[in-house]
Fold:
Amino acid sequence: MTETITTPIALQLYTIRDRLAQDFEGTIREIADIGYIGVETANMFGGSPTSAARLFSELSLTVCGAHSPLPLGDQKQEVIDTISALGCKRLILPGQPPDMYKSLDGIKRICDELNEAAAVGKTNGFQVGYHNHWYEYELLEDRVPIDVMLEHLDPEVFFEVDVYWVQTAGQDPAQVVRRLGSRAPLLQVKDGPCQIDAPMTALGDGVVNIPSVVSAGAGTTEWLVVELDRCATDMMEAVRKSYQYLIGKGLGRGNKN
Structure:
């Protein structure tokens, strides 16, 4: 009996930021036409969060997460209103400046802010999570910053594991995904040479063992989120090829085969 693939595939819209700036609606329609089931926003809405949400709804695109500032300080209500308008249940802090991870005190300050934001999110119907880069997985005083974060973060704070950056830091992304388990409901999948400044590639064209990572998250991964920060080839072609790779390998579920 063939196993049914249930993990849906989304696209992090930062990937296509240049196209969105030129034609937001047309580009989103193209993403839906490729077969993506969801999107992860990155503070670009082609007008307003409300108008973007209407378009996503029309195209049956679920907003699986929103990369966003934390709902703290002067921007607290604006962030809350944006998440509400999107009908999104997960806010993700996309990272902090690398220098913050060069000391234990800096890491603890990040955790304090995330914990404060998580309390705000709980009151307003959404979870707060954290997206890594490479510097959270590089050694600091014989420890990995992400382990320090795990000690200080409220259990309500989830992780979106960017598997590419984990491997770029010299760690095994499948092992990280397996260890975090249900604490990491979102996997951001990308591929390339795993060098900090090098262009990325469509999934399957780089050195990341995507099937191994997806297998490690079986039973706990709720979304596979495709992202490319930059690419040497046509970005939309890489977005299409990445979707087709996941579908072709039976790793995720979309609207089209």
